[in-house]
Amino acid sequence: MANTNTLTAAIPTILAQGLLALRENAIMPRLVNTSYSTEAAEKGDTINVPIPAAISTSAVSPSYVAPDDAGVTPTSVAIQLSNWREAPFFLSDKNILDAIDGIMPMQASEAIKALGNYVDSQLMALYKDIYGFAGTPGTTPFGSSTTEATESRKVLNNQLAPLDDRRFVIDPDAEANALDLRAFQDMSFSGSASAIREGMINRKLGFDWYMDQNIPSHTRGTANANYVVNGVNALAATTLNVKTGVGTFTDGDVITIAGDSQTYVVTAASAGGTVALTISPGLKVATTGNEAITVKGTASTAYAQNLAFHRNAFAFATRPLADTTEGLGNIIQSMTDPVSGITLRLEVSRQHRRTRWAYDILFGVATIRPELACRLWGA
Length: 379
Description:
By secondary structure, the protein is α+β, with helices and mostly antiparallel strands. The chain has helices at 4-25, 93-100, 106-124, 147-158, 172-179, 182-185, 187-190, 193-197; strands spanning 33-35, 46-51, 75-80, 83-91, 133-135, 166-170, 203-204, 207-211, 217-219, 228-229, 239-243, 254-257, 260-266, 275-280, 293-295, 302-310, 314-319, 331-336, 343-351, 354-367, 373-377. It has 3 domains: 4-50 and 85-126 and 315-363, no CATH class; 130-212 and 303-312; 221-300, Elongation Factor Tu (Ef-tu), domain 3, CATH 2.40.30. The strands form 4 sheets. Strands 5, 6, 7, 8, 9, 16 and 21 form a 7-stranded mixed β-sheet that branches. Strand 12 and strand 13 form a beta hairpin.
């Protein structure tokens, strides 16, 4: 086996190769609001992500008394670093010699892939916080036109999402349909021959487009069509009282209320019957009672949840773990990818005639501003 000093010198190269592979497999961290920090942290630590306060204009009235600006107070969302994951593997002495020579072991690539998919899936799972709705449940988007893209854009516009830094993340089926449309493949639309050759959508219709194999499915609850609003529910209320129906509501179900054009997401699972639903956003129209409730999709059916969003809709926070073994003889180093913001640690430890390698990562995810995102339902 090669000496420890040679292996130590090779670790930064191996880490860098791992980060490049991780970047390819973890799509979402590159697209959302990312926290960069060089301070080491532990599982359970929290990161506060600031949210700007809405500001309205006011008339200027010169006076010896300054106006009260107490209402202009930015808030923040705390992201807990609750995900500490590792992907361990073992290498033979020959594998280690290859690694020292700059050859990425196949087993290491698999470990990186597992971590990348996990990080990506945790961010994609935040779809349950999003009430913006577009598409037809059960129908793969872009089957014949770009209608679903313009519909999603309209939802974001109505929810006052900024026009810049918008992304669209779609599953392989939706991408396959999109690539068959002239609006996505014709150079007169694309402006890039290389994009057509490589089968990439790039930026179109106001979005940067990405295909993600980790697009989640949402399985709708079993609530039937008999639910109606139970009594008066005040404007801006985040609890909606319903009655007369049967079947359960699932966290992430999208509903509409007769007489109100807003779509709402159920943010906590609820049993059937006369119940109080926790919803987001707060009611845009107060209810008087007996308004019909419609749940998007068919009971107990799973639907792909593609996402159109501004980067500030979600946040990904990662922190390096400590590079120390307190004299135990292991080799531990960390490195942060400047593109994805992911901090990866690699620990190498010698065991009984074999060497254990383990990549690990500490991170947290959160929905910061749900109004900046829209779910495009598919099949």
